[in-house]
């Protein structure tokens, strides 16, 4: 089938490449001409395992085309996916102006019957609004129908998530559009959950809010574990063995970041507020997360009287491993706090360094070429992303620090490993390892 995808960001590019790989003819349209040029040459603008290979393969066989010309991209296509951003407004609500702009462009350009598929995460009722907008602007003799098809991929495993998703959600009020959607996804062999448009829109927000709730819940349990002498890692395993609870998203740490959970939880609070419902639980989840993101700074302040002039190493900048995305990463909040306290910050990340150099600019911040360079002469090391490279380093590297003091926000090492290596170590929801007594401190 001939398909257009508007917005070649994370979701649009991965969707476009995977649809092409499944045999469809896909045109990805993005207003960023620089990005389009790179993609035309087989260069992915994002770091995403497995994506470049598929991008090159599908460009070569001619199933994938990139353009910044919407009218050209819409020529002869039956289905248009919208995958542009829905960032956060100042009040936390979702900004749907990019999605509305695309809907209007489609209405102006469409020359024959078209199905629009909204992949972007949009507040409940947005697709109905888009349909009304399109009906207002489209030519009279054509039909444009809209379908909600929220995206559930995770950054860092986006390609795999697309091919092996647990479900595909399709919200549609039209039999013709539903049939087309089933055809598009036929070869993916993934269960399809068909529902109405508003429920599909809500499934996306509810899923992200629920996962964020699990994370804030385990982080609060972790904070209590530290105070009562329990180990959150063991608690999470024990809880997860109950199949009603499950093991996933119970990894305690320094909170959730990224381009989705922070903005989608806040947007859902707004969606509820707009219908006079106070989503108290979710407000708690958001507050817990914001405190959790800087919990290591609190621990650091307990250790040192003042952070002024202290050299502190940051290991890991991306909001999670296997991505170079820094959006809403805990590292940004931590670094901001440390800079305010007058510390000298030296950062290292295996992949997100180039993005970081353009995002985190301050005279007190420098970048190191390796973990070794970052920790050398530092008075504390803060681990913020659990990259394999960081998890698998020889722990001796920390013993060469000016003060061998490690704050691990992602519980990368076992307490036994750390005790054997010999440095002071504080993690999340577990006893601290003290250097002098070699005892575990509560
Ligand atoms: N990033 C994720 O992991 C993820 C996962 C699931 C859902 N989502 C949702 O998907 C949507 C897209 O997210 P993203 O992270 O891919 O966004 P992104 O910011 O990475 O990409 C958006 C792209 O759209 C382009 N664009 C903007 N206006 C355009 C227009 N009029 N025509 C053509 N291109 C245009 C931009 O240049 C940009 O390349 C959001 O609603 C997000 O909440 C994201
Ligand atoms: O047990 C866990 C799991 C995750 N995280 C953190 O949560 C954030 C988000 O992680 P993850 O969900 O793996 O990555 P995203 O790419 O943000 O994916 C989420 O957001 C996407 C955008 O909406 C959805 O499509 C996905 O289904 C949803 O998992 C990261 O900072 C992780 O460090 C934890 O702290 N503990």
UniProtKB/TrEMBL annotation:
SUPFAM superfamilies: 6-phosphogluconate dehydrogenase C-terminal domain-like (SSF48179), NAD(P)-binding Rossmann-fold domains (SSF51735), UDP-glucose/GDP-mannose dehydrogenase C-terminal domain (SSF52413). The keyword DNA-binding does not apply. NAD(+) binds at residues 30, 35, 86, 121, 155, 263, 327. Substrate binds at residues 152-155, 204, 249-253, 257, 320. It catalyses: UDP-alpha-D-glucose + 2 NAD(+) + H2O = UDP-alpha-D-glucuronate + 2 NADH + 3 H(+). Residues 313-415 form the UDP-glucose/GDP-mannose dehydrogenase C-terminal domain. Its EC number is 1.1.1.22. GO terms for molecular function: NAD binding; UDP-glucose 6-dehydrogenase activity. Pathway: Nucleotide-sugar biosynthesis; UDP-alpha-D-glucuronate biosynthesis; UDP-alpha-D-glucuronate from UDP-alpha-D-glucose: step 1/1. Keywords: NAD, Oxidoreductase. Pfam families: UDPG_MGDP_dh (PF00984), UDPG_MGDP_dh_C (PF03720), UDPG_MGDP_dh_N (PF03721). Belongs to the UDP-glucose/GDP-mannose dehydrogenase family. This is UDP-glucose 6-dehydrogenase.
